[in-house]
DNA sequence: CTGAAAGCGCTTACAG
DNA sequence: CTGAAAGCGCTTACAG
């Protein structure tokens, strides 16, 4: 039914055996330049495309890897996909985008099913799935190559790419301290996102280093959503001694806090400084634009794909640079 | 090397021929309940997963479709992916996420290559790729099943799902007119997004219907980006007779216009009303929240997948409802 | 309701 | 440097 030409038809036109066509397609050595050229011409003439299914079935590689994600942030997912996709295509691999539920009972089963069905050559795992330990352990047991993006737990010897969330959290906090702030609140992300815990650790480290007492009442649980940022800000600003600065674990929550400030006519940054994390589009779209930490999301995924498919096996853990972005949502602490 | 069990091993354990196992896997009729049960048990015991490559190669269906997208909006792409993915998985299909360049010379060639390599059963095409006519025509020629999301051109008899952008643009404009605005600016999206042209048409229709003169100087070209919204607002507000309302073709541009207003201490909505389109997360994250048109992005993609894979062949064009969201970024026109 | 044969379009050893 | 045989793990006709 499908008029797709096959390797055999190509071989007929090129006047060689179909095995030779296969060699050319796979860029094998030991093919004379003349033969190679003839085959390439025949391929172009027929507009031949090798069947991926046939290659996968016959060969020992599928040239397919999956990207696992479970993240409510369109911005994050979009850039993770773009970076991973770019590097995979460059290296001749297809990338399957696989949403999943990192908390689900059957996460491991679902992923191993995909691995088997699709004969996957490897898996790229973005947070928070990158910290789903039962899955990670099963992949190690089955010797499936994988790479983790921003894993917080047991980074160990597995392939991984991340930024230094602790250092970034510390830098941002130190910047706020430098502006004169002492009552600095922190809004945490969901517990299964280890990065959030690390940013919180950096916040504590900075307070300690500068002799500012850590006040647990100024640390509020959020879930990385805009709504949770609103809620956190409302509870913080309801205090008799509200903070002069709010450091939210990501930009969405910072935007939520900012909306609360606007509603209450609290001028940012004059009366209240607000900072986020990630430097998503949102950070530049709100007013005033958010002071935040730029995270190279796309590069993280690009590097992860590169490590998985084209790594040297030696450099197994990669740490990329982050950048503190000072914008108008933060300013000197108001005089008491 | 891979210890994957095959259909033959399942058949041995179940005590039937491997052909019968195939029947059970494909939910064919004419299998006794007892036999079916035995096979299913064997499948569970071995944790058997059929090889997708083998099924594709042997059968005439690959149970694979691709989603084509070329859209700089993470929000839009994320929800399009989620909706299409959900319905595909429900119907037993795998969805390949395929970014592409709708303006590229070799768009058609790239897509047909994917179709051949992956033996695709169909294609879901999101805007602006859904209006790349050379591609659409080639798919028709090759009789590849496809469905277009929000196509503007030649909707014709091809499968498609959309909202009524003209009506939505008209409603939003009428709302602004109802608030007393007469000098209403419109910021257009990029020319290859036909939806933008249609929203603009709705804007014109509303002006006409209410006897408001159409002023071409109040229509500014943008490209759906935040930055272009900023630029548009800057040029509009530099006029000696600036508009009292700005209707931006999407939320990102509206957010850009809003930022300009903030910078210049123009109070929104008291001195200037601003409206967007799409109702992305951004619309609710900025201050004041944007009046906009809610577009059921996820449903559009879900319905597109459904039409492609489970349609009745009769209802070929689907129009989903939009909703005007009145929020705080628009208000009565200031008294002259 | 169930089965034995052929074949999908490639790659993998193995030869020469 | 090139080729003939076998086989990957399934589905498709064709039988009975």
Features:
Rossmann fold, transcription (chains A, B), homodimer, DNA-binding, 6-stranded parallel beta sheet, 434 Repressor (Amino-terminal Domain), LacI family DNA-binding transcriptional regulator (chains A, B), 336 residues, DNA-binding (chains A, B), 4-stranded parallel beta sheet
What does this structure look like?
2 copies of one chain form a homodimer. In chain A, helix 11 links the parallel strand 8 and strand 9. In chain A, the strands form 3 sheets. Chain A has a 6-stranded parallel sheet, with helices on one face. A 4-stranded parallel sheet of chain A has the order 7-6-8-9, sandwiched between helices. A two-stranded antiparallel sheet of chain A has the order 10-12. The longest helix of chain A is centred in the N-terminal third of the chain and has 17 residues. The mean pLDDT of chain A is 94. Chain A is an alpha/beta fold and 336 residues long. In chain A, helix 1 crosses helix 2 and helix 8 packs across helix 9. Chain A has 3 domains: 44 residues, 434 Repressor (Amino-terminal Domain), CATH 1.10.260; 127 residues, 3-Layer(aba) Sandwich (Rossmann fold), CATH 3.40.50; 131 residues, Rossmann fold (3-Layer(aba) Sandwich), CATH 3.40.50. Chain A is built from 13 helices and 12 strands. The first copy, chain A, binds a DNA duplex (16 and 16 nucleotides) through helix 2 and helix 4.
